[in-house]
Write a structure and sequence with these properties.
The chain is mainly beta. Helices cover about 5% and strands about 40% of the residues. The protein contains one helix and 32 strands. A hairpin with a 2-residue loop joins strand 13 and strand 14. It starts with a strand and ends in a 20-residue tail after the last strand.
Amino acid sequence: MFFEHAKEGLFPHAGAKLRHRGLHSIGIRHGDFPVANGNDGLHSLRPHDRTQTTPSSGPTFVVDDAGQQVFPFTGRADTRGSRILTVDLLGLVLDGMRIQAPPVVGREDFGLYAVDRDRKRPKIRTLVEPKVSQAGITFATVVSTLPDDPDHIIVQWNKRRPGYFGLYKVNVRKGLPVLMTDKISDVTNWLVDHDGVARGAFTVDGLNAKFLYRSGEDEEFRTLREFSMLDETISPLVFDFDNKTMYVASNIGRDKNAVYTYDPETDQLGDMIFSHDEVDVTGLIMSREQKKLLGVAYFDDYPQRHFFDETERKIHERLEAAFPGKNVNIVSATKDEQLNILLVGNDRDPGEYYLYDRTTGQARFLVSRMSWIDPEQMSPMKPIEFAARDDLTIRGYVTIPKDREEGESVPLIVNPHG
């Protein structure tokens, strides 16, 4: 199972004695809803591959084919003066894994790296080296893990101009980037289809934007829509598995973004798939194995999901019943989607990871995200809302220290960035 979205935002190691055990890897991405639009999302895993990628920090595990043994990867290595403490899984590619160092001492590291998991002493190779200058940070994010091409990934990389991204195919073994197209510039976001073909691009000049599209790899990009960033418009999320229809988010004729089908050949919105009166809906829950849209994900006061697939709905209902009061999120899955990694937590519990076997219906504890935090000592986050002077509804959360009485005055710390 994997998750797609309009801003894809979207790398284990086993010693030599493990390499013949048919290992595949399951990784964890933090956050309530992993989503993707071609830049940094979670994708389903593929057995027998030996590399992987990550866009964020967190634990990573290697699990054998029977799902009986899980080996945590806690790779440590010095790279450019910062330390890689933990890594996450994005997708698997043969003979190496792509990883990104997490923030260290307040520093964000936006590089992409590769490591051969078969080595007893994994050696980290740089795929994309981040650079910081007065013009900004030069970095790359993963657009596609190319499930049918284990030697390459596709990344968007602002290598030439910090504010804009080119599209590159990168060899994960050698780290050789190849520019896929240089026919358009000023691109802030790329969209590729399930074959890894660049089909859509957003270009921005000030507040003016264009959505460019082409029917296939041999076609030229053409402008489908020109609009102001302040206008109502559409935001492509992902191609459906026919590589023809798109799922898009649109606020045309409405206040909040809803999910629609969209025909890029005729530039016509199709049926509304799902909407919510209070919040934007942009998260899609999709299955590569079943080649279908399973549901949508959004956030009002708390993480929410709406399932179109009845089987998936029942599975999530059973999981939520097994963990009352907790949010249960599937953050990774094997290619056949039968083994899942669950992140179970809530506003007081940073979360615990479980290995869930759909065949047996059993979930086995793996590791806690922050075992040193006692949820019983944490205060709940209470959703609040109020009207601003222009009547715009402002949403937020308030957390009151546990040792204070209701209505008692307490110091206020405002975190406006969520």
